[in-house]
User: Fold this.
Amino acid sequence: MRQVTPLTEGWTLRHPDGTGDALPASVPGCVHTDLLAAGLIPDPFLGRAEAEVAWVGRRDWTYETELRPGPGGHERTELVFDGLDTVAEVLLDGRTLGRARNMHRSYRFDVTGLSGPLTVRFTSAYTEAEAVRAALGERPGAYAEPYQYLRKMACSFGWDWGPTLVTAGIWRPVRLERWSTARIARVRPLVTVEDGVGRVELAVDVERSGAGAPLTVEAGVGGVRARARIDGTEGTVRLRVPDVRRWWPRGYGEQPLYDLELTLLHGEEALDSWRRRIGFRTVELDTSADEHGTGFTLVVNGERLFARGVNWIPDDAFPSRITRERYRRRLEQAAAAGVDLVRVWGGGIYESEDFYDACDELGLLVWQDFPFACAAYPEEQPLRGEVEAEARENVVRLMPHPSLVLWNGNNENLWGFRDWDWEPGLAGDSWGEGYYLGVLPRVVAESDPTRPYTAGSPWSGSWLHHPNDPAHGTHHSWEVWNRTDYAGYRLHVPRFVAEFGWQAPPAYATLRRALPGEELAPDSPGMLHHQKAEDGNGKLERGLARRFTVPEGDFDRWHYLTQLNQARAIAAGIEHWRSHWPVCAGTVVWQLNDCWPVTSWAAIDGDGREKPLYHELRRLYADRLLTVRAEGDGLVVAAVNQSAEEWRGTLRLRRMSVDGAVLGEAGAVLSASGRTVGLAEVPAGLVPAGPQEFLVADADDGVRALHFPAPDREIPYPRPEFEVALVPDGITVTARTLIRDLLLQADRLDPEAVADRGLVTLLPGEEVTIGVRGWKTPDADTARSALYCVEPTR
Assistant:
């Protein structure tokens, strides 16, 4: 039987020129984390230390260990690296075993009978990228760093939310594999289901140590077993599993997973085995034309979905630090917010088995980008061969996971070619189109025909339409954040909004940890360093000024209002677009997570703390959502029902003044069948007449919608009055006046404290209980100091 030995101990790190002492190295890991553990560099996440460690990415580095003679009894011994970041030469006892130039694929070297010093020499990613650029010519990109010239995580070179920390190292596991006669080289599982019958077709490739040995494979799943012969180095085994339970996305059903195992046999001797968990489900992408343009609707098990999505970036600038537990925690947060789709963005990585295992279990659909983002990518060698090799490996690696429902060719590159002045400068040079419209769809069609492929995001489906045309395919809505008020989201109904977002700073405790000793201000040195977006603070300020009177010299108030404005902006988009289902079939918020402490578009900050946007997503992505939208000269209440059951009841509509008086009231029928949107017209007499009035719509089950017709700076709010009382594991707040967007910033009570809810608006006389955990010394007055709400304009 194949024997696997992890090779994680005894590694050291040094400069390849031999200067300096050898340092202990963690494998998996990277140079930065080893230097940090040794106390030789400051933490680049703190203050402005990122700039102090820039030299690390421009140096060459060497990892070393000793490969000792192994036990006998096997014909072949192989050294396997699951990930080398990125340009490396592997040597054993001074002899070159091979070279690597791609972070996104694995490498295997024959070391049968060999032992001695094992060395992995890493060349700076800058050196490689600059050499490729010199050979192939300049290509445009959104950033000045040369990330498009090598197959490495692009955001290592910095992004508009991320630090520039150009890594090197053995970033995924390394091991020795010993085997005899033959081993399983690749298994390509095609999993389908029809009329309750699950079908599994396993295409198996084997590697032999010699010719002639008769081989078979035996597979089993769901109590069904089958065998097939291996002819040469290939074979196919098929299983038919009756009465399978289908795997569903969360909110639509359960997520049953089946253990699938495959054994390679020589006679009755087991030589090797392969095991995965699979789920039986079907997935389609409906891009048919209709009276509104060209659709983009995911269909799982025949059920058409409105995708409640978030964009995912690498959860740490050093991805080797992300543990299985951390993946699980972050994805549990996504599921708890009502998310059912996670898009793995193309400037990062093909995500890990730990990530996909969690998504399988939680019912989170995954849209996986191929790693291309915001640049023109050369299509010549040495890149072209690497692209196809990595695509083939990762498509097959991730195929078993039922959560994976869509392959996407790139992020914004088709759009960039058309709109970002790339086309004239390229003057006919390659830029990636051959990957997105040629190589990648061919690889997916050949390797994984059970899943759909789309060429890019955004992409209208063909060059007959603008790549970012909202009426066709996927759309990225960035003009609103960049240039206008978030009311602009309500001007269009795209077919599928794959990116849109609004910035806000991280939690207060996160800022205090990341900027120790700094007097916080929006433009303080550390705050500006941890704001990577072009004119990011300017856009924050202009966005605030359209809605509020911007506080001068009051950082705490600025912090609250910018976080509030982020949640309000995302709500404006999601409420509008969900209310137009099925024309719009999904929203994917930019972004769920951060990779370090930073002002960004994230709902969960770089320390894992949930911003108000996170809690707002729980409301916006709930199965049942009420929203008020303009319709002609009046208003309608849209009841968005994504549950399977009918939503039926009575709507209580109230026109109120901000001083608490009820100016008019009426009832209306609430009716929305399962997976539909129901509309109820607001009587003309209940439409707010000016900024001093607002509309309240309440459903029988406690779901509420509020409609304020004017920006807050024009609304004559009363001075907020409320009472705070301690209750077990939290506080209760009772409103004496209208309290708009009350927020407890629990981390101001204790850095470990967490509140169970975010923004809440209370009418006079209403109360809310806010649960708090991790608060060591509860006190009502202290709680009051951490409560914020909208205040009257001074």
Remarks:
- The radius of gyration is 28 Å.
